[in-house]
Amino acid sequence: MSNLFNVERPLMQILVKLTDLVLLNLLFLVTALPIVTIGAAWTSLLASWQKILRGHDNQVALTYLQLFRENLKQGTLLWGITVLFGGIFFMDYLLLQQATGVLRGIGLFILMPFVLLLLAGSTVWFAYIGRYRDTLKQVIKNAFLILINCFPWVVLASGINGGLLYFAVSSPERLLTTIYSCTFFGFSAVALINALIMKKVFGKIEQEKK
């Protein structure tokens, strides 16, 4: 019977990871509550999962809070940049909805690459600052270099994030489903998926530097 609760057993490992999933989701919700700190909270969530995936999974709550303090400034600044450009692109989209015919099509065609670039950039730079220490200028520069050098992986992560975001806002029923799941584990699960993909990206980069 004692073997059943051995932490080395697969069942216990799964239960531990599920506990981490729920705990990190709760910590994210609490630290993201002021809204302006969402960037720092998301960075800390991604970085926490990156540490867990590398086997550094002791004291999950303390690690998360430490990462939150370390990334508060840059995470908040990058969140502000993301919201600013996201707001501008959204206003452009609303204006284009008032246009008709060819003008609307051309406008959306021009706007879409910028939206996708912002989505890809934000996918990388929040994960980046949770793993490396650089100036804000260097973070943004390196994020787009990573986008070029690890294009398929970044597209995969961005596609998942964009797809989930679209799912959440595509109907009232799906929005309620998203809110319910995110209350308990949703944000943490998405961060885990991102961390798994970015682990491949950062692994490739660090291997090339050797």
Comma- or semicolon-separated keywords:
85% helix; 210 residues; 8 helices; mainly alpha
Distance between the termini: 47 Å
How big a fraction of the residues is strand? under 5%
Total helical segments? 8
Question: How many domain units?
Answer: 1
Helix content: over 70%
Topology as a string of helices (H) and strands (E): HHHHHHHH
Category by helix and strand content: mainly alpha
Main β sheet profile: none
Rough outline = globular
Average pLDDT metric:
91
Low-confidence stretches: none
Give me the count of strands: 0
Q: What's the alpha carbon Rg, rounded to whole Å?
A: 19 Å
Short description:
By secondary structure, the protein is an all-alpha fold.
Describe this structure in words.
The protein is built from 8 helices and no strands. The mean pLDDT is 91. The protein has one domain. It is 85% helix and 0% strand. The chain has 210 residues and is mostly helical.
Q: Topology, pairings included?
A:
Layout: H1 10-32, H2 38-53, H3 60-97, H4 101-131, H5 136-149, H6 151-169, H7 172-184, H8 186-209
Helix pairs in contact: 1-2, 1-3, 1-8, 2-3, 2-4, 2-8, 3-4, 4-5, 4-6, 5-6, 6-8
